[in-house]
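Hi support team,

I submitted a single chain yesterday and got back a structure, but I'm not sure I'm reading the token output correctly. Could someone confirm the output below corresponds to the sequence I sent? I've pasted both exactly as they appear in my results page.

Thanks,
R.
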Amino acid sequence: MAIAQVATYAHLSDADIAELGRELDSIRRDVESSRGRRDADYIRRTIRFQRILDVGSRVVIALSGGRLGWALGVSGLAVAKCVENMEIGHNISHRQWDWMNDPEIHSGTWEWDMAALSSQWRYAHNYRHHVYTNVVGVDDDIGFGAMRMTRDQPWRAYMLIQPLQNMLLALGFEWGIAVHGLYAEYERTGDRAARSAHTRALLTKAARQIGKGYVLFPALTMRRVRRSLAASLTANLLRNVWAHAVIFCGHFPDGAEKFTPEVLAGETRHEWYLRQLLGSANFTAGPVLAFASGNLCYQIEHHLFPDLPSNRYAEIAVRVRALCEKYDLPYTTGSLPRQYLQALRTVHKLAFPDRLLRAGADDAPETASERRFGLPEHPPAGAQPPALARRGLRTALARLRSQSSTMTNSANRSRV
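Hi R., thanks for writing in. Yes, this is the structure output for that exact sequence:
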């Protein structure tokens, strides 16, 4: 099932983890000390670009009479919404730009252009998800409370429809995030009056978004209300599907591991770093695709340093990848289609009960534990990973694949 002993699974000693942590701390210090005008200019330039693209796209939709103009306007509006949500809103809310001391570009004041209330999202995401990344039963982002994404989550009959649930979540992703943040606040408060206040706040935000996107802007186009309304709906759907794909690529492809709550007991910051490395995944992207994804193609770097400026993730990734080489750790990445298809395979696969699945619960692509190496789930206190039969996790995984291939070939020869 999920990983209970992170060091054992990673095949690293306490000294290895401490040294890895110190090197990651060094990366943080280097970036923090070098933040400056070019970073501030980047976020201000991005905000300016997004606003111009948003307004320009709406003007094209309103003034053009043909299908091509409508399609161009909708495409531009969808891109503007993606940039606002992911490269601007998401990253500002992570306190990536608080160091600028600009009251307009600050995590405490920015309200993004989507249904979710940013203050509710910050608790659900920045705290529940980023502090307790992929800890089963603690991190609500594992399946978002609606789907089974690891075998540690018990199967229920309603999960047979989770492929359909996932499709609906993709189409209405902003609303799923909104409800997700609200429920996180419910769990935090427990007080009926406080819950009612959070509900009213979200409903107010949602009404404002609906009024702006589906009433005000279409009304401004006068005789082309239906055309503008269809454009707003289509752009929102495109934004939702893209955000869903980016998030799933970073959290649910093969190699993005899950953990039991036991890993949190006495966890040091350096051990937290290691859990982020093992629990996140990237996808390969050039500058344009990285920008469109809010630089969340660098999900590993984002989870290691969620409050460092997103425009620095590409240079951070070079150093993080080198550390993975040094400590023989996997650096989980692949093309966007590959990562997304692996996540979708898990969605469809885990809709069925475990008895119908082939791989074992400790050695499946979507769920793995230290027992896949024949190691005890709970080694004696103070025990270090075995010095023999391994060099590091990447070597250990390669050895497992080699053994599995050898056994398969032997079985095939015996049948012949």
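A quick pointer for reading it: The two ends are 35 Å apart (CA to CA). Let us know if anything else looks off.

Best,
Support desk
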